[in-house]
Specification:
- The protein has 336 residues and is mostly helical.
- The protein has one domain.
- 67% of the residues lie in helices and 2% in strands.
- The chain contains 14 helices and two strands; from the N terminus they run αββααααααααααααα.
- Strands 1-2 form a two-stranded antiparallel ribbon.
- Strand 1 and strand 2 form a beta hairpin.
- Helix 2 runs parallel beside helix 6 and helix 5 packs across helix 13.
- The C terminus is likely disordered.
Length: 336
């Protein structure tokens, strides 16, 4: 059970249900591990991103000392380490969507800045630090025990296989089409609803998006004309408003995406997974990792946004239709 998998699923599903790529989609450029440069109208897929290292470098920001070995073991066995390359790619993509379309030269600078700040090593270090601040040795060991169980390992492998594979968008789209023709059983929907609530999937996905929006809007705000500035209080008010408006749609999408992800897991096994998520060790894990993950995204996004406004003046964003507070695209209604 990782926020990484669920956040990635919801991002993918939102794009599909919203009707495809936005009209102002940018051109993406990336270099793979063999030095091959690729240009595309789609961002690099998780399998194209370099794998996250098994352990963060010694100088990784946010390294923790106390229970670091146990925290590393938990983040490893839960699959989070292996999924970070894919999720940081998606975070960079959402970051670029929020600043709007830029000229090719400006976008190249934005791309370099995002790549420098939003790295799997940096995000991992910050997550480990955040989990360390909330460490509970007894609950940590209990969570480790569950993830090392046969069912825990099987669930983790399902999640990791999804997040590290490419080309799943079409498969998700077909699955959503089948749901419209044949809705799932109520009992199954009830199980994934409990998993969404216990795992805070909807909340975490929204909080990640809001962290990225907040970072760019706050960085741009001082550069805007006086009549367009929001200020911290008004910005936070707008973010709360957008989050509240989006909550139910994102929750429904979360349920659909969980139905897809765990479609081959029997009800009895999924129920055991839900019970772990609802248990004290499960709730400690969910809270510690979710909060640390959102904080980590906020930190790297703030750094990227600060450097971006220095390198590419927001006046040029405005000429391209960007800058200021920008609402995220919301998905259409789902089959549930």
């Amino acid at each position: 059970m990782t926020r990484i998998t669920w956040t990635l699923l919801i991002v993918l599903g939102a794009g599909l249900l919203a009707g495809g790529a936005p009209a102002d989609a940018a051109t993406y450029r990336w270099v793979d591990e063999n030095g091959v440069v690729t240009y595309s109208d789609r961002p690099p897929q998780p399998r194209e991103a370099p794998p996250a290292p098994d352990t963060p470098a010694a100088d990784t920001p946010g390294a923790v000392a106390g229970d670091r070995a146990a925290i590393d073991a938990l983040l490893d066995v839960s699959g989070l380490k292996r999924q970070l390359a894919g999720i940081t790619t998606r975070i960079r993509t959402e970051f670029h969507q929020q600043h709007g379309q830029l000229t090719a030269q400006d976008f190249a600078q934005a791309e370099q800045i995002a790549a420098r700040h939003v790295r799997s090593e940096s995000v991992y270090g910050l997550i480990a630090e955040g989990v360390g601040k909330r460490a509970d040795a007894t609950k940590l060991q209990a969570a480790l025990g569950w993830y090392r169980s046969p069912l825990g390992r099987r669930i983790t492998e399902i999640e990791v296989a999804f997040s590290t594979s490419g080309g799943v968008e079409r498969e998700i789209e077909r699955y959503i089409g089948r749901l419209r023709q044949r809705p799932p059983e109520r009992e199954r929907v009830a199980l994934v609803a409990r998993l969404d609530a216990a795992g805070r999937a909807t909340e975490t996905s929204l909080d990640v998006s809001m962290a990225i929006i907040r970072s760019l809007a706050a960085a741009v705000d001082p550069y805007l004309p006086a009549e367009r500035r929001l200020g911290r209080s008004q910005l936070e008010s707008r973010i709360r408003e957008v989050r509240a408006q989006a909550f139910e749609q994102v929750r429904r999408l979360s349920l659909v995406m969980m139905l897809f992800l765990y479609r081959d897991v029997p009800d009895a096994d999924l129920a055991r997974y839900v019970r772990f998520a609802e248990s004290e060790p499960g709730q400690w894990y969910v809270s510690a990792v979710s909060r640390a993950f959102v904080d980590a995204v906020g930190a790297v996004a703030r750094g990227a946004a600060t450097d971006l406004v220095r390198a590419v003046p927001p006046q040029r964003w405005q000429q391209q239709g960007g800058g200021g507070f920008k609402k995220p695209a919301l998905p259409k209604e789902t089959a549930l």
